[in-house]
Amino acid sequence: MWTSTRKRLRRLEAAWHQPAARSPYFPVVARYYDQVQHEPAYHRLPDQTWEDLNGELLFKLLDATVSRVGQQCLYHRLRSPLADEAALHEFDAAATLLAQQPAARGQALLALDQLTAHEAYYLADLLTGQPLPTLRGARFAPVLALGLLATLLGGFWLPVLWLGTMAFALTNAVFHFWQRARIRYNVRPLLQIGRLHRAGRALHRAALPLRPLQQLAAPLARLGAIVQQVAFFQAEAELNGEAAGPAWLVLELLKMLLLLDVLVYARCQIAVQQHAPAIRTIFEAVGYVDCALAVASFRQRHATCVPHFGPAAEGIQLQAAYHPLVPGCVPNDLTLAGQGVLLTGSNMAGKTTFMRTLGVNALLAQTVATCPATAYRAPFCRVLTSLSLADSLPTGKSYYLVEAETMRQLLLACDAAPGSYLLLLDELFKGTNTQERIAANKAVLAYLQPRGWVVAATHDGELGALLQSCFVEYHFCETVTEEDWYFDFRLKAGPLTTRNAIRLLARLHYPAQVVADAQALSATLATRAQLGSTQLTTSGELDSVADSTR
Q1: Under a CB-based contact definition with an 8 Å cutoff, are residues 217 and 285 in contact?
Q2: How do strand 375-378 and strand 478-480 relate by DSSP bridges?
Q3: 3-state DSSP percent of the chain in helix, strand and coil, to 5
Q4: CA 259 to chain centre
Q5: Which of 197, 199, 32, 217 is CA-nearest to residue 123?
Q6: pLDDT in tens, 345-357
């Protein structure tokens, strides 16, 4: 149904201001990223880190894109952090322009509204220069079509040739119906090339001061040739959408007898392969504008700041950083300089959410130049995490083995590029016994600290003493009373000095004997731990003296 431009624009503006909750189908949203993720880049966010940072939920929060192309480019951008300050400032300027100039935003919204069909997801298949799938036996199509025409015309001089015409017609019909389903499947991206061309042309004519749009003149001209060839399939699709009429019947008869769809498909195969760079340039320019629109929408819905990037010597500084996926999230400050950070605190106190807040801020800073904080200053860094591991039933790997393999990959990455990683680690090696867990934690964290910025959460208070030379301690805590308990989710300096786990059991009305036994044993273990810590400190001092005398 035809809708006036004014009504379309009102609808698009309303959707931009308050994007409707939609559930993207990530296998197609990630199609562009999957096509190009093996190309050289500063960083590609690993699957584990993407999951740890709730990447899919974060994408949905930012997804105020209009087009399917924009959705794919936003997903790719969130998983491909940059280390290019000029490019990030340029993207920030684009988002600011589209937020502050309604006329420019309206032109962009209308242009992008042409690429909302589901089939537009498959445009990503045309970007890498890989040929479209080849049809089996397609090389015989010209011979079959020419054979039918030759025998048909020759029959006017030698009627017996019309028997050959009938044979060719039957063969061609069988060949046509054999290939029809394959062609319809393979031409899905081709059907959207015309819309991509129109969207790119509309954005180019809008003369928005965005660098990707200023480079579209030549690619648009080259893509125009493909659009003419694809028009055949576009017309076929439009006719198939209508009730069968004379035009549809004539087209179907010609396709069946002369194998027009097979022949045109073969020509499109060559054209798409030759002009893949032009298609990609337009695709990425259109996606860039849509991403900038989405980020502009995110900024108006959330309190954000523009990140500043400095040298590694200045460390990482965040002020009032919060997690945009947590309603009413309590903001916190943190400065990461030469030392790592060791977080302690009980479950639900906020340790893991705080680490995710750090990761999300670093990720959004280097992808969309936008941070959920009042101030962000940091060097460029690659974010790697180990926050939500699980055992692997299909491979038969225990939790501890999965942990050990994950940490090995982090160690190898830090050795390959020391000083350029932000590592967020939650309760390492909790799949093994206490003694070996503490020992492995101490060894791994001490090894990683000089090679990156490390924030690690633990329940093992002993690690603070073991790592005091290279880690500074912070904690989250809760308050438990006879009537209630609550968390303030505020980051506090120093180690955790209170223990409320057993008091919480009492608050939950555990049997009195269970609570009493737990308190008694806890006191005994605390005394032993204190004696062990004293012995460990003395041993460490003796080792230091021995080292100094060598």
Answers
A1: no
A2: unpaired
A3: 60, 10, 30
A4: 42
A5: 32
A6: 877 788 999 999 9
